[in-house]
Amino acid sequence: MVFFLSGALMGAVPLLAQEKGTFDPKKAELAPLGLPSPYDKFLGLDQVLHLALGDWKSIYGDVAQDVNVAQLKNESDLSLALGVKIADGVMAIKARDVQSLNDCSTQIEALAKKLGVKDEEMARAKTVRAHANKEEWLQVFLELGFLQSDIMNSLRNQGNAQRRPLIIAGGWMQGLQYTSLVISKHYTAETSNFLREPMLVKAMQGELNGLPAEIKTSPKVASLITEMANVYTIVNIPLDGTVPQDSVKKLFEVSRRLVGEITQP
């Protein structure tokens, strides 16, 4: 997202005047998997398909699912559902749908609270809704991104790193449902290439498989891990490759079933 890039650039300016230190590979650390956003795919597809806002609103209506937050009990289920609702929020922004964005923001806030995020750490949720009500969509996009970052930082500070891969995987799977539905409705070889993400899927598989056994064997997580292997075989295509139309449909069906499981108690 834009705010990560701008922050990195701002932080880099003072370093220009400093002498670059010697690189020590022994001190290198593997950065955690970042939060993937489906928004870049939505923008790319828009450049090719030139969809109207009404088309995006229709896609949102076909895919988005409310979460019964009160009935979700364990942290794994809450984390997966949080990822799904973050992806729904991104789509609501793309569709310029004020009410849907407000609903997503409310559910994101409720899920994060059940994961232990404090009210003061979610102050941006109100800001998201305020900008949405004024239809200030760039500010909505930025504030939702900041809200995601605040939530993830809070969870990390709690010392529970096991939630992060689940939030990422849940959000990515919902993004896949949106993207595969758009491509199914407007299939071409060019649009199918937007589904190519072998490295990201492989990284998510690694993080999910690295979770403790009691989490991996929970029904929703176990189902997600199993299907990730099948998804990888479909999206692992050459740089200029094509995903066949029947495989795009399969991706939609898999993601729809998994997200349906995630959003139910």
Describe this structure in words.
The structure is a single chain. The chain has 265 residues and is mainly alpha-helical. The protein has one domain. The chain contains 13 helices and no strands. Helix 4 packs antiparallel against helix 5, helix 5 runs antiparallel to helix 6 and helix 10 packs antiparallel against helix 12. The protein is globular, with a radius of gyration of 19 Å. The N terminus is likely disordered.
What is the average of the pLDDT values?
87
- Number of structural units classed as domains: 1
Order of helices and strands: HHHHHHHHHHHHH
- As a whole number of angstroms, the C-alpha radius of gyration is 19 Å
CA distance, first residue to last residue: 31 Å
**Distinct helical segment count:** 13
Return residue spans where pLDDT drops below 50 for at least 5 consecutive residues.
1-20, 27-31
Strand content: under 5%
**Computed structural class:** mainly alpha
The count of strands amounts to 0
Brief sketch in words of this structure:
This protein has 265 residues and is mostly helical.
What is the topology?
Elements: H1 2-12, H2 39-49, H3 53-63, H4 75-94, H5 98-114, H6 124-133, H7 137-157, H8 163-185, H9 189-192, H10 198-209, H11 213-216, H12 219-235, H13 245-262
Helix pairs in contact: 3-4, 4-5, 4-7, 4-8, 5-6, 6-7, 8-13, 10-12, 12-13
Keywords:
265 residues, mainly alpha, 13 helices, 68% helix
